[in-house]
Amino acid sequence: MYKYLFGPVSSRRLGISLGVDLVPPKTCSMDCVYCEAGRTTCLTLERREYYPTNEIIGELGNFLSGGPELDYITFSGAGEPTLHSGIGRIAEFIKGKYPDYKICLITNGTLLGDAKLAKELAAVDLVIPSLDAADEATFRKINRPGPLLSCSTLINSLASFRKTCKTSLWLEIFVVAGLNDSPESIEAIRKAVVRIKPDKVQLNSLDRPGAEKWVGKASEKELLPFVKALEPHVKVEIIGKPSVPEQEGKSKTISASDVERGILDLVRRRPCTLAEISSALALGKGRILPVIDAMAGAGRIKVEKMDRGLFYKLI
Ligand code: SF4
After folding, report:
1. Which domain holds residue 278?
2. 200 and 150 share a domain?
């Protein structure tokens, strides 16, 4: 079992992705209403070595030496990865020793205006920052940043990062109906997108339990105005359901306590379906179900029903 690595998981946009956790849950510079990792408990802009850089590098070296098939190694997890001051050293280690693997950074973008960080990210192949609002009031409602962060600073940071960095840049917009989908809000986002010039925009919406219960999945009708406004300027994609490889029939020899540890390791980062757990642990659903039922019965995890099915999450 690894402490800082998770997966590989089947990701909606990146294919088979090995996740790397760089900050403890839930350390972030924002507290988004839709966050799949729950509410932010450490709201900060301070960059420091939240986990020992050498230990993360050690786990990566151990995992990658086996030559696993991956589409990406992704800095993501339950918090904002750019807060980790060793992110550059970790990315350089991967590219130096395992140059065939591509690195992706999923970030809220709040620190990308920092020239030192931008240099540290030179080894990263793909950066996916978020921009859910381009006016101050909506930004505060949806992303709930600390008092020192403003929406205009975030947009300036994204635009300057885009100008100075060679990496591919996909901009993610998380649509929360009733919060950022008014014509005024969409027009402000359009102007910001024209300024930032990302390689593409990805429209995302909640498909698993988020930080606030009232946030739901945006319908196609609610996503369409974003597509219409942005498509003349940039390629727009709507992120769909992940294709979760079927693991039925596989039943590795693994103890119930190891299955339980694996399940906890996944759901402490974000709520997961049975199929996602089965795929990530490479175990048949029949092997996982009795363990997960026992954990739910003992009150160790919660079950929540969403459109996409039952999600298991940490209490
Ligand atoms: S969605 Fe990302 S930026 Fe927003 S609170 Fe969660 S980890 Fe932080």
Report:
1. 256-314
2. yes
**Which of 29, 31, 154, 158 is the best mutation target for the ligand 1 pocket, counting ligand atoms within 8 Å of the beta carbon and taking the most?**
31
For residue 106, the ligand 1 atom closest to its alpha carbon is 2
**CATH number, domain containing residue 298:** 1.10.10.10
**Lookup: tokens for 57:** 């590098």
Pocket test of ligand 1: the residue of 80, 206, 215 to mutate, having most ligand atoms within 8 Å of its CB, is: 80
> Are 288 and 223 in the same domain?
no
**In angstroms, rounded to a whole number, what is the distance separating the alpha carbons of residues 233 and 44?**
34
Burial class (CB in 10 A: 0-12, 13-18, 19+), 119: exposed
Residues 234 and 260 placed together within one structural domain of the fold? no
| pLDDT above 70: residue 251 | no
State pLDDT tens for residues 86-136. Answer: 999 999 999 999 999 999 999 999 999 999 999 999 999 999 999 999 999
Distance from residue 247's CA to the centre of ligand 1 (Å):
30
- The protein residue whose alpha carbon is closest to atom 1 in ligand 1 is 35
Residues with CB under 6 A from ligand 1: 28, 30-32, 35, 37, 40, 79-80, 108
Same structural domain, 47 and 194: yes
Phi, psi (deg, nearest 5) at residue 27: -105, 115
Residue 89 and residue 125 in contact, taking contact as beta carbons nearer than 8 Å: no
Q: How many domains does the chain have?
A: 2
- pTM here? 0.86
Ligand 1 atom closest to the CA of 108, numbered from 1: 3
On whether residue 46 sits in a domain, the answer given is yes
The ligand 1 atom nearest the CA atom of 174: 1
Ligand 1 centroid – CA 79 distance (Å): 6
- Report if residue 73 sits inside a domain: yes
Q: Are 82 and 202 in a shared domain?
A: yes
Q: Rounded to the nearest 5 degrees, what angle is found at the Cα of 47, between the Cα atoms of 41 and 52? A: 90
Rg of the chain over all Cα atoms, to the nearest angstrom: 19
